[in-house]
Design brief:
The complex is a heterodimer of chains A (264) and B (306). Chain A has ten helices and ten strands. Chain A has 264 residues and is of the alpha/beta class. In chain A, α3 packs parallel to α5 and α5 runs parallel beside α6. Classes of the chains: A alpha/beta (264), B mainly alpha (306). At the A-B interface, α2, β6 and α3 of A face α7, α8 and α13 of B. Bound molecules: adenosine-5'-triphosphate and magnesium ion (MG).
Chain lengths: 264, 306
């Protein structure tokens, strides 16, 4: 489904600020895989997701989505395959536009935009039904501007928008980190259910080790631009948070007294 | 104010309102301060006047003015998107280049259209319209253009254009090429501005190389006046607001002239209108609330937003 072959990304190449954010990362995802990604700050998790989404080109290596080589494709062309939810709830929606306008834009992700009225009354009925799934009462607020919504509501809406048109790949970068614990749980539950319902291949970056182990079927740990741990199946089922920290210590050569570094 | 002055003011206001709709498309919809406007307004006047005195049909000349503006907008857009020049500088470059181009087009600093056939003289031939031809034609034009812009902003393409001005990352991740959107927005905007320029030249019966100077600030002032007086609660309302703002701006200018200021003082008055709008907290909140939110998205400080 997703094949990442030896990708390298160097920021500020040739300057004193040179930073190898991705150092020869390779990864193979099967269809329907739900991978949680953990690692300390600056490990390269966001850079990996951004490289897949096409925010920038990689310095070396190749990326394939369902056999299509997307390495050279700009971000807007990869949108045909990829949906995203960002850490910052402000980033996933257009604040000055209404809920329904945001939704219909997402519904045509990766499709040609036409000179045709974007929202008909028939669309409204469909959008309302979709919004009801969130259980946040947003179905009554179709024509409200998104700027009126709370961070949690916006994030839930972004997640819903990401699945209005089933993506081949769903990229979630700490998408619950900016939310209060209760809202975060709700959005996470929603994530789990939409991913399951449509069998989405998903990447989820998180600093919550419990979530990392409980959600999805596979966990990878990154450190200094490399994948230093990749567990699934029985190995993952038997894994504990302590175990993860120990693995991190071994693999990175650092001794961690607690999980602060991974959770930070 | 005498009826004659008032009707002349309203006529002008309706023509300039077309220009204001163009400025609204870049300044508000795309969130792009485009200074090409000063040059493209004159370009429209220059193209129309030159073609008309060369014997071309004035309607064709007006259409050609629109096309010329579109080209100017595309030029600015390409400078910005392909060559990564900042919005302000891209606009200034186009505006500067257009100054020479406009003189080339006209062949001299001004062209008189006295006693030539224009789109307005065509209308005076119709019954009952002798005295109101300019008013009626300008009104019909601005209503049609306002309607089309309104409908356009609610199409799928229109939504993508608006989102480009609101949140680039978001609309790119929805598969939209924001470079194309920006070029398209600038093209339509400058097309409308040049179109308005051709109307103004035909109405005042001359085109002048300096007639576009300060047009962007007049456009901004009009947008702000309209938004404050009418509001921006929906797209339809906002488009109506900027058109109304364009007319109101001319009325304010006429009043200022009546108070005894000289026409040469007008640019200063306009600048002050914009400055007042920018610094007075009440108006600022109302007008810039959307912009500030967009700023917050991009991680800019919005500490100045009370
Ligand atoms: N645009 C950029 N320019 C320069 N350096 C960058 C850029 N983006 C990321 N980096 C650097 O690359 C490294 C990896 O950053 P990245 O954002 O991928 O980390 P992360 O694993 O997502 O961390 P966090 O958990 O804090 O989000 C960091 O050292 C970071 O400073
Ligand atoms: Mg990150």
């Amino acid at each position: 489904m997703l094949t990442i072959r030896n990708i390298t990304r160097i920021f500020n190449k040739g300057t004193i600020n040179e930073k190898i954010a991705l150092n020869g990362v390779s990864l193979e995802l099967a269809k329907g895989d739900f991978v949680t990604v953990i690692g300390s700050n600056g490990a390269g998790k966001s850079t990996l997701l951004n490289a897949v989404a096409g925010n920038f080109s990689v310095d070396a290596g190749e990326i394939f989505i369902e056999g299509t080589n997307v390495t050279k494709l700009p971000q807007h062309k990869r949108a045909e395959f990829i949906s995203r939810v960002f850490q910052d709830p402000m980033l996933g929606t257009a604040a000055s536009m209404t809920i329904e306008e945001n939704m219909v834009m997402a519904r045509r992700r990766g499709h040609h935009r036409r000179l045709r009225k974007a929202i008909t009354s028939k669309d409204r009925t469909v959008l309302m039904q979709e919004l009801k799934k969130l259980g946040l009462g947003l179905e009554a607020r179709l024509t409200n501007r998104v700027s009126l919504l709370s961070g949690g509501q916006r994030q839930a809406l972004t997640l819903l928008m990401a699945t209005l048109q089933t993506p081949k790949l769903l990229l979630l970068d700490e998408h619950t980190a900016a939310l209060d614990p209760k809202t975060a749980d709700k959005v996470l539950e929603l994530t789990r259910s939409v991913a399951e319902a449509s069998h989405l291949t998903t990447f989820m970056v998180t600093h919550n080790l419990e979530h990392a182990l409980n959600i999805g079927n596979r966990t990878i740990m990154m450190h200094e631009g490399r994948i230093i741990l990749d567990i699934s199946g029985d190995e993952r089922a038997g894994m504990t948070i302590e175990g993860l920290l120990e693995m991190f210590g071994k693999a990175s050569g650092k001794h961690l007294v607690n999980d602060k570094m991974l959770l930070a | 104010m005498s009826w004659q002055i008032l009707s002349g003011t309203l006529e002008q206001g309706l023509m300039y309102a077309v220009m204001v709709v163009g400025v609204y498309l870049t300044f508000r919809v795309l969130n792009y301060a485009d200074l090409s406007v000063d040059g493209s307004f004159t370009l429209g006047a220059a193209i129309a006047a030159t073609l008309i005195v060369s014997g071309y049909n004035p309607w064709l000349a007006t259409g050609a003015a629109f096309a010329g503006g579109v080209m100017a907008g595309i030029f600015t857009g390409v400078l910005h998107t392909k060559f990564k020049i900042t919005p302000l500088l891209s606009g200034i470059l186009t505006m500067t280049a257009l100054y020479s181009i406009n003189l080339r087009v006209m062949g001299k600093a001004n062209i008189s259209l006295l006693n030539t056939r224009t789109i307005f003289t065509d209308f005076t031939k119709l019954p009952f319209l002798e005295d109101y031809s300019v008013m009626v034609l300008s009104l019909v034009t601005v209503i049609i253009i306002g309607f089309f812009v309104y409908r356009f902003l609610l199409t799928e393409v229109g939504l993508a254009l608006r989102a480009t001005g609101d949140n680039e990352l978001m609309i790119q991740s929805q598969g939209v090429n924001i470079e194309i959107m920006k070029i398209m927005g600038l093209a339509i905007s400058n097309g409308l501005v040049a179109f308005a320029g051709s109307y103004v030249a035909q109405n005042q019966q001359f085109a002048d190389a300096g007639m576009g100077i300060g047009m962007i600030i007049a456009g901004l002032a009009s947008v702000i006046i309209g938004e404050v007086l009418i509001g921006t609660s929906s797209i339809g309302r906002t488009v109506a607001a900027v058109i109304f703002g364009g007319v109101m701006y001319r009325v304010i200018i006429a009043l200022v002239l009546q108070m005894g200021l000289k026409p040469t003082d007008l640019k200063m008055v306009t600048a002050f209108i914009v400055i007042i709008a920018l610094v007075s907290p009440g108006i600022k909140n109302k007008v810039f609330s959307l912009r500030d939110r967009a700023g917050a998205v991009k991680g800019e400080s919005h500490a100045d937003n009370p």
